[in-house]
Design brief:
alpha+beta; 8 strands
Length: about 130
Amino acid sequence: MPATITTALAVAASLALAPAVTTAPATVAHTTVAHAAAKKPNLRACYDGKCNLTLTKSVSFRVSSRYGITRLAISFSSTRVHVKGTGPGVTSQAWLGKGTSGSVNNIGVKVVSLSSGKAVLRLAPRR
């Protein structure tokens, strides 16, 4: 076999067997995705009516039917939080300001802090 063909085959084989090279932009993109996921509130933890939430946008999530509702929707502005509970044939809602508390079908909601871009809430079952 001529030397040029042998060399070409050796180069091709080394390229096929070489490990993949990771570039810096892929690492940055992965870090950004992981960072964004870390900031996302854990809404599943609120199913039992007890959780702490830090929100940067409106959310809607399922809650236990023992409260007579099956879903809570929470939206906010810089001055108030709107909490709406819905279920089969039922709607219950509350508008709350900074530092106030209220409830929607025995799910207590306390507004810990509030600004135009962020709401921090504490949910707890009312007895």
